[in-house]
């Protein structure tokens, strides 16, 4: 049976999602932050007929859909819900789950990423590169300096205005944090989290100024960021599509746990 979930389902839903907190990062964060009564968000659940326990979940955030299941589920039932939304833009999720929807929904484009998780730091490899350099936790007064670093990184396509407003919002709401290091009076490297929730967080926006690459600064800030969150009992995750660029994460303990697909209608 599939039905729309409500506030009375919160505890059972979060317990179900909490069995895989990294993979369910976005689902957990959206439910914790926005609940079940928002115009821009809806959540459906499929239940086991024998015991009434949740076996699969589908979340709509704006025009994007995210399914999750711990085992076999009613793919067609979820697909029928999605197809009723003419404004639907994207379906994303674990590659093994998202791929099941291809037989029911036509997609024009699919982007695949590697998905990695960190549960505990590799202590031997996570030692900072230099005792003389320390990573600082950013506050609102550091937003301009850190975003100026991001402005100069070609891989980041967010506009300067958006990057600043996004960072301010995550710092103000506590849904993300940033660590950075300074060299010669400017931000030399930084790393952030997003979608932080009670169980997990995602690493994003890892950057090093071109003048300071090869010095281990990115490793330092990512290690400090991860150490912070692991000490709070949270698991961390990240997407990557360049195996070479992922070497920094593998050194401190990230392990691949599967693929992630973003499928555009």
UniProtKB/TrEMBL annotation:
It comes from the Bacteria. GO terms for molecular function: acyltransferase activity, transferring groups other than amino-acyl groups. InterPro entries: Acyl_CoA_acyltransferase (IPR016181), GNAT_acetyltra_YdfB-like (IPR027365), GNAT_dom (IPR000182). This is N-acetyltransferase domain-containing protein. It comes from Paenibacillus durus (Paenibacillus azotofixans). Residues 133-265 form the N-acetyltransferase domain.
């Amino acid at each position: 049976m599939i039905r729309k979930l409500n506030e009375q389902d919160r505890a059972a839903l979060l317990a179900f999602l909490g069995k895989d907190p990294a993979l369910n990062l976005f689902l957990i964060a959206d439910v914790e932050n926005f609940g079940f009564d928002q115009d821009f968000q809806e959540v459906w659940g499929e239940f086991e007929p024998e015991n009434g326990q949740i076996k699969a979940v589908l979340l709509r955030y704006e025009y994007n859909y995210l399914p999750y299941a711990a085992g076999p589920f009613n793919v067609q039932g979820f697909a029928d819900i999605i197809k009723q939304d003419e404004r639907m833009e994207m379906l994303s999720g674990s590659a093994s789950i998202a791929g099941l929807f291809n037989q029911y929904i036509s997609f024009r484009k699919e982007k695949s990423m590697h998905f990695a998780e960190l549960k505990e730091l590799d202590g031997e490899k996570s030692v900072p590169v230099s005792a003389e350099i320390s990573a600082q936790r950013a506050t609102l007064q550091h937003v301009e300096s850190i975003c100026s670093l991001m402005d100069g990184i070609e891989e980041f396509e967010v506009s300067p205005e958006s990057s600043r407003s996004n960072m301010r919002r995550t710092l103000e709401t506590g849904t993300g944090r940033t660590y950075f290091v300074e060299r010669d009076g400017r931000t030399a490297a930084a790393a952030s989290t997003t979608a932080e929730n009670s169980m997990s967080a995602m690493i994003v926006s890892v950057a090093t100024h071109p003048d300071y690459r090869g010095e281990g600064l990115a490793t330092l800030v990512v290690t400090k960021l991860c150490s912070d969150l692991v000490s709070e009992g949270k698991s961390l995750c990240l997407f990557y599509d360049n195996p070479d660029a992922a070497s920094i994460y593998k050194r401190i303990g990230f392990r691949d746990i599967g693929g992630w697909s973003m499928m555009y209608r």
